[in-house]
């Protein structure tokens, strides 16, 4: 960890309760907590539970229990995203008023079919930094009348950000290219003032079909609403920062600094996943490991 003397910072750990915490989460949580302590900042915990299908209350309870066991302390009340859909809806409304989003009715299958129909072999179709195929633009150029018809038919739809237009508008508002300050390390190994490359994601979903938000919109609005000034998180989320910075500029939200940290890997060098049971904090605890052991294992 580099030494950062900026006091008064607000940091957070923002897990999703869709599985049990593992060593990777312990590292990320301790990273933020220890840094906040070191620089005299505040530490918040946020529960990112917009995915109603995958999030479960027992996972949330386990988050509180595991983090307390690790020796973390956080401020009350804990912000739970599922209690704030109306706020995210306001952000979405603003983007709609700016004419930067459009409804998308396409199912996963229809998206796949459109890619196949393009004649480009699936393995050659461009993917975003998370490995998902870029949206082929099915609903983007649909006439407004057709979109209205589909809405009247009661088909469910997501809202997608027109990324090219959004980037242009953000640059106009910003008076130049949108950048951000990386205090950790990007996936390319650089840091400092970095440019955003949101086009790598194409037209991302900004509000899902089932809830009026997405990870990107909720995380951006919450960091602002909670006054987070230093976002620390794993390098897997580094590219998502491109989208978050665009949204911050568009919605007139303050710009935090970022510190992306390396990921905990298993012995074979693989990233830990929710199913990495041998690295689960509960399993390690019942195998007799102490929280000091966990800190040693993640090097903090
Ligand atoms: N909720 C996200 C996750 O569990 C982290 C969000 C963030 O730190 O920006 O992966």
Question: Radius of gyration from the CA trace?
Answer: 20 Å
In one word, what is the shape? globular
What do the pLDDT scores average to? 93
Report the CATH topology name of the largest domain: Rossmann fold
Helix percentage range: 25-40%
The strand order across the widest sheet is 1-2-3
Element order: H for helix, E for strand: EHEHEHEHHEHEEEHEHEHH
Structural class: alpha/beta
Tally of helical runs: 10
Count of distinct strands: 10
Summarize this structure briefly:
This protein has 300 residues and is of the alpha/beta class.
Account of the protein in words:
This protein has 2 domains: 1-82 and 264-300, Rossmann fold; 84-263, 3-Layer(aba) Sandwich (Rossmann fold), CATH 3.40.50.620. Helices cover 36% and strands 14% of the residues. It has 10 helices and 10 strands. Strands 1-2-3 form a 3-stranded parallel sheet. Helix 7 (215-225) packs across helix 8 (240-250). The radius of gyration is 20 Å and the shape is globular. Mean pLDDT is 93; it is low at 1-5. Glutamic acid binds at residues 14-16, 48, 219, 233, 237. The site of glutamic acid (GLU) has 7 residues, from loops.
Topology of this structure?
Blueprint: E1 10-13, H1 23-38, E2 42-47, H2 57-69, E3 79-80, H3 85-97, E4 101-104, H4 108-117, H5 144-152, E5 158-161, H6 163-174, E6 179-182, E7 192-195, E8 205-207, H7 215-225, E9 230-234, H8 240-250, E10 257-261, H9 281-286, H10 291-298
Parallel strand pairs: 1-2, 2-3, 9-10
Antiparallel strand pairs: 4-5, 5-8, 6-7
Helix pairs in contact: 1-10, 6-8, 7-8
